[in-house]
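Much of what follows relies on a compact textual record of a protein's fold. An example makes this concrete, so a full record is given next.
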Amino acid sequence: MDLASLEWLLTDEGRHVLAEAEAAVAQGGDPLAVQQRLRRAVQADPSQIATALSQVELRAHAVAKFGDDAARMYFTRDALEQATRLSVARHRAARLRAFGGGSLVDLGCGLGGDLIAAAEAGLVVAGVDLDPVRVALARANLAALDLPGAVMVADAVELDTSGFDVAFADPARRGAAGRTWQAEDWTPPWSFVETLLRRDACVKVAPGVPHDLIPDDVEGEWVSDHGEVKEAALWSGRLTTVRRRATVIGDGGLATLTDEDDPGREEIGTRAVGGFLYEPDGAVIRAGLVTAVAAGVQGALLDPKIAYVTSDAAFRSPFARGYRVLEELPYREKALKAALKERDIGTLTIKKRGVDVVPEQLRKRLGLRGSVPATLVLTRVAGEGTALLVQPV
């Protein structure tokens, strides 16, 4: 969607066509039938109808990130893909508010998701972006949700941010050639991010950011939402509280684990399989805090290089999925198939770490026809391939 199309969509006529497009899509049918229905309902050219229908589709996709607010917001496909999930952005905004920040500048604001969360939290917000379409999106989305904030086209690298309590940046990791993993190819580049991290700032980065890229005086926080790792955030200046943090957001609220909870690998050690197996959340793994989970469940690692924890005690933890270990089965495929068949297992969930197995291919080769559902964990214990029949707790 170009700027002219977005500006039309924001007019009274555009909003009317968009409302009719939503009604036409809600009635169902194949895309051709929907288009024909919409053409009968409104006087608009084909490109405008395509713009409205595309926006309806994007709003439907955006519900996963923005919930009910998505129905009032405006999107482009690329901007939506890069936008922060609102639950994560609200966590970040609450942390900024707790720090005492009164104002925030978003350097590369995209469609305005982080501006929305910060404005909801009561911060004075301003956003800039190089892309005029994204600036218009952010401005429209703040207005649609009746939130205050200023947005303008500007180059973050050239902006003086000293008038704001906190600077926030979400460098674009996609260029003309597609997604890039080289930090200096981000927009703005890593060299600018390093400069920004010398003040009170927060920078959103990919969860796979190397730990050795993070300056020693900066906190790295990895965040997951309902079991899915969404991002990492780098906190600098007075916003830094610890070195590493894992935050998990779920139906029960929010929980956080830090390096202050971590006794270290040497103290935790390894041991044989106990009565329970724990699979740490992805944010915990990314933050390097698996041994903190082990300490919390009075357990140890199965292998020094694999993110599974075992214990003789049953715990419920927001930081790990727990399983009762039922028995150890043969690891070799032929013997494993016979053991599963003997137990009348049909539907099999296969979880694996540290072994060269493709679960979908293995499941097909096993050819199970039984009536009992089961969960199988394939991993290494003391360097040896191991198959564990487990039950979620």
Q: What stands out?
A: The radius of gyration is 25 Å.
